[in-house]
Automatic annotation (TrEMBL):
<comment type="function">
    <text>FliM is one of three proteins (FliG, FliN, FliM) that forms the rotor-mounted switch complex (C ring), located at the base of the basal body. This complex interacts with the CheY and CheZ chemotaxis proteins, in addition to contacting components of the motor that determine the direction of flagellar rotation.</text>
</comment>
<dbReference type="InterPro" id="IPR036429">
    <property type="entry name" value="SpoA-like_sf"/>
</dbReference>
<dbReference type="Pfam" id="PF01052">
    <property type="entry name" value="FliMN_C"/>
</dbReference>
<dbReference type="Pfam" id="PF02154">
    <property type="entry name" value="FliM"/>
</dbReference>
<feature type="domain" description="Flagellar motor switch protein FliN-like C-terminal">
    <location>
        <begin position="253"/>
        <end position="322"/>
    </location>
</feature>
<dbReference type="InterPro" id="IPR028976">
    <property type="entry name" value="CheC-like_sf"/>
</dbReference>
<keyword id="KW-1003">Cell membrane</keyword>
<keyword id="KW-0145">Chemotaxis</keyword>
<comment type="similarity">
    <text>Belongs to the FliM family.</text>
</comment>
<dbReference type="GO" id="GO:0003774">
    <property type="term" value="F:cytoskeletal motor activity"/>
</dbReference>
<dbReference type="InterPro" id="IPR001689">
    <property type="entry name" value="Flag_FliM"/>
</dbReference>
<dbReference type="GO" id="GO:0005886">
    <property type="term" value="C:plasma membrane"/>
</dbReference>
<dbReference type="GO" id="GO:0009425">
    <property type="term" value="C:bacterial-type flagellum basal body"/>
</dbReference>
<keyword id="KW-0966">Cell projection</keyword>
<keyword id="KW-0997">Cell inner membrane</keyword>
<dbReference type="GO" id="GO:0071978">
    <property type="term" value="P:bacterial-type flagellum-dependent swarming motility"/>
</dbReference>
<dbReference type="InterPro" id="IPR001543">
    <property type="entry name" value="FliN-like_C"/>
</dbReference>
């Protein structure tokens, strides 16, 4: 005969079953949340995170070089930093720009396609004012750039393209050239709005003013060289470039002229005798000919030497390197 459970035992069993159901319902939810990763099929990531990192490192170097060149060009201190490197659709890039931007379409020969350098007006007018001899100020009411102002900004864009060509040379020999200038981003469409582009955003600071210069490259244009863009490849290229640069610098230094001066000694003279100095006057130096003479290289003491002569010419013989 089956054992009859008491009411207390029945209640204990029911409470245990309720707890097991709660734990079994909570566990799958936790596991599902951990496995979920968001993916937007409208915006597939065509450029890997490693390639994005490599592009950032590449343009960080460009920003340092170009800030120095632009500072010398404008004769004032310019700071340029890479604000971000992202991939997005071309339509989103155009929507992110202001309506009064300096929109420069650039060719990327031998790659098929074009890129964009967009100078925002908040920094564009500051650069124009500086180029025209001002202190570098902007207008309170931003307006579209005139054709003359676009031509003035073209000098800075071309300067920027020269440095970009040097930075990209280890990856590919790209000839950057401005082929069109517009004041509205809606006038020119280099790729379809749904195409993915890489956007490098530079923040430019000059005095109290700062603004943005955008550098946009369509991924479809970069595809032939995309495999060459990677952190490991960039590191090996950087080491090779550094070695080549050292060799180039040493070759240039071989032909540099420097001034060598030998300090023979000194003597004291009063003002009256100094004023009465005349040719063939002889004064004795407070230094023996056996003591080493100090040799200066461009004003810096570098050697010790012995005094002497070769045939009819005075000479020194280097005996010791200092420092």
């Amino acid at each position: 005969m089956a054992e009859i459970l008491s009411q207390e035992e029945i209640d204990a069993l029911l409470s245990t079953i309720g707890k097991e159901e709660e734990s079994s319902q909570e566990l799958p939810e936790t596991l599902i949340e951990e496995k979920i990763s968001i993916y937007d099929f409208k915006r597939p990531d065509k450029v890997s995170k490693e390639q994005i990192r490599a592009l950032r490192n590449l343009h960080d170097k460009f920003a340092r070089n170009f800030s120095s060149k632009l500072s010398g060009f404008l004769r004032t201190i310019i700071e340029i930093d890479v604000a971000s490197v992202d991939q997005m659709t071309y339509g989103e890039f155009v929507l992110s720009l202001s309506q009064s931007v300096s929109f420069n379409v650039i060719s990327l020969h031998p790659l098929e396609g074009s890129g964009i350098i967009a100078v925002e007006p908040d920094i564009g007018f500051v650069l124009i004012d500086r180029l025209l001899g001002g202190f570098g100020a902007t207008f309170q009411n931003i307006r579209p750039f005139t054709d003359i102002e676009q031509s003035i900004l073209l000098d800075i864009v071309n300067l920027m393209l020269g440095d970009l060509k040097n930075i990209w040379t280890p990856i590919a020999e790209i000839r950057f050239e401005v082929i069109a200038q517009e004041t509205s981003p809606n006038v020119v469409q280099i790729v379809a709005p749904s195409e993915v582009v890489v956007l490098i955003v530079f923040e430019v600071k000059m005095g109290d003013y700062k603004g943005i210069i955008n550098f946009c490259l369509p991924v479809i244009t970069l595809e032939p060289i995309l495999t060459k863009i990677g952190t490991h490849d960039m590191l090996s290229i950087s080491r090779k470039e550094h070695t080549n640069r050292v060799v180039d610098i040493l070759q240039i230094l071989d032909n540099v002229l420097i001034r060598l001066e030998t300090y023979l000694g000194e003597f004291k003279i009063d003002i009256e005798s100094f004023l009465n100095l005349k040719p063939n006057d002889i004064y004795i130096l407070q230094k023996s000919t056996n003591e080493p003479a100090e040799v200066y290289c461009n004003g810096v003491k570098k050697f010790e030497a012995k005094l002497g002569k070769i045939k009819t010419k005075k000479a020194i013989k280097i005996t010791k390197l200092i420092g």
